[in-house]
Structures are given as C-alpha cells and as structure tokens.
C-alpha cells in the first residue's frame, strides 16, 4: 500500500523534474533532453580530454635531454646551448641536475624569443612557492624544480610558429649563466 503511494508520487513528480532540468540546460544545448546521456555524463566527461588530445597521441614524441652542470654560481651551466624541436611537436624533456650542494636548485623555462631575462627576473619575484615561474604569456613551458641530484621530466607542445625561442633557469641569479636557444623548425 505504502509502496504504491510512493510510486504514484514519483510519476507525478517526474514530468516536473524533467521540465526543470530542461529549463536549466545551457543555451548551447540542443534542447533534446536525453536521460541516457545524462546518466552517462561522468563517462563522457572522462573520455573528453582523450578526444581533444587525439592528434598528439598519434604523433611521435620528440625526446630531449638536458643537464645542469656545476656546483657553484661560477660553474653552473646547461649542458647544451641549443635545443631543436619540430614546430608543434609533442616534446618530452628529461632534465638532470648534476649539482651536489643545496644552492644548486634549477629548472628549465622555455620563453618567447629574446625574453629569457625578463621571465627570469619575474620568476625571481614569484619565489619558491610558485616554482620561480611567472604566469604570463612569455612562458611557453616550464619544468618542475630539480633539487641537487634530482631528475625531473616535463612534456609540452612546441610552439607552432618556427623561430628561435629561449630557455633559462629562473632560480634567482642563475639566468645569466643558464640560458640557451630553442630552435623551432
Ligand atoms: Cu639554475
């Protein structure tokens, strides 16, 4: 008896609920309310990023490696002055910090052409909590901080516009010794 009553209430509430849901749909929705779609929302949301990345998953990853050398402010330098990537390539960079002592903290930040110093000085102000990386359009990509002896990895999409970009360590006062050119072809 009780169950029957509940069921009846549910049926009378259902059209109202559907109407509410329909009226809440965003303007870009096609207006067709499909209960099945709504039930599988979580599944489609999880697979959506994969669809967006479809081009890059088919693309071969370009692997690069870079070391930070030296164990004093006078010695520090990157192992390479120049890195080269294909325009728009998916790049995986392995960054090895060969420093031993604590002040030898490094990162690799790729910047717009000619902007390594400007980005490094802005990164200095950001401080350790922000990984010494400023949030602005001059930054193409940045690695995590690599402590002495640590190896970090980063993945990024190379700029689509060919040119000579910069890379730099934005740890305070390292930029003048630790910078190089990213050639995008
Ligand atoms: Cu450094």
Automatic annotation (TrEMBL):
CDD domains per the UniProt record, alphabetical: Auracyanin
Q: What superkingdom does the record give?
A: Bacteria
Alphabetical keyword list: Copper, Electron transport, Metal-binding, Signal, Transport
What residue range is the signal peptide? 1-29
Q: Which residues belong to any copy of the Blue (type 1) copper domain?
A: 74-185
* Listed GO MF terms: copper ion binding; electron transfer activity
What residue ranges are annotated as transmembrane?
none
Protein name, UniProt field: Azurin
């Amino acid at each position: 008896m009780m169950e029957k009553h509940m069921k009846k209430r549910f049926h009378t509430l259902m059209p109202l609920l559907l109407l509410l849901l329909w009226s809440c749909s965003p303007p870009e929705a096609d207006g067709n309310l499909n209960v099945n779609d709504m039930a599988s929302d979580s599944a489609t949301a999880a697979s959506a990023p994969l669809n967006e990345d479809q081009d890059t998953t088919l693309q071969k990853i370009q692997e690069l490696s870079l070391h930070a050398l030296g164990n004093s402010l006078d010695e520090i330098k990157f192992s390479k002055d120049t890195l080269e990537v294909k325009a728009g390539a998916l790049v995986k960079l392995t960054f090895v910090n060969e420093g031993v002592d604590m002040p030898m903290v490094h990162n690799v930040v790729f910047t717009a052409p000619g902007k390594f110093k400007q980005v490094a000085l802005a990164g200095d102000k950001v401080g350790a909590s922000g990984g010494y990386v400023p949030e602005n359009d001059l930054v193409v990509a940045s690695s995590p901080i690599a402590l002495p002896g640590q190896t970090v990895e980063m993945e990024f999409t190379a700029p689509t516009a060919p040119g000579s970009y910069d890379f730099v360590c934005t740890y305070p006062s390292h930029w003048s010794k630790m910078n190089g050119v990213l050639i995008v072809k």
